[in-house]
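Q: What would this chain look like folded?
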Amino acid sequence: MIYFIAIFLSFISCISQGDKNRVYKTDHFKIFYTKLDDRNIKQIADRLENSYPRIITQLQSAKLPTVSVHFYTDISDLQKAVKTSVPNLPVWAVGLATTVSEVHMISPNHPKQDYETMIRNTIHEFAHCVSLNINKTIANNPRWLWEAVAIYEANLPWNPHQLSYLVNQKPPTIDELNQLSNTYIYEVGYFIADYLVNTKGNSVLNTLIKNNGNLLLTLNADDEEFTKQWFTFVKEKYGI
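A: My prediction, written as structure tokens:
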């Protein structure tokens, strides 16, 4: 599973002319939706709204400003909307969080997308907004933590038995997880956050977000020791 998560950039959002009147408001979200979403926008909004208290509580964040979620009918519309800040958005991108209160996504009802996965992807992007609310410098800084938190909060785990490098007892290093040139963090990020929460408690995610993933300060472990710790947890939990 591949996600495109943008760095923390501000821009003026663009909404397609045909969908400018399609707006659905909840207590914490303002959703600009498309004709694809007419039949189930309430269901989509309910999923987002229901995720709000859980993620805010788990990450111990203050209340966010109203989060604007912009849905688009296809990748072309999404690219046009963000071109001033991300001029070369990849064609495989499905969405991005750009500020503490802005999310841009291809519609969950796009015919070539899996609805449930796209709902979780949208929650993933909202989790990025929450991280930014805690620390405005956290976007991809470090990348491993930025993505691990969002993947965990969106409940997007992989099957570790399908990841050959884990089966072969070679977990990726922190340096590898921070590289934009590979997708390791999207595959193991859930397990890292799961290890942290289950062994250190919910507060550890908030602490790490605040100090930009300082493992020595937070866990008294260097990168290598931390990798050993989370991988030992995964081996014991999943039997690999």
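Residues 17-134 form a domain with the Glutaredoxin fold (CATH 3.40.30.160).
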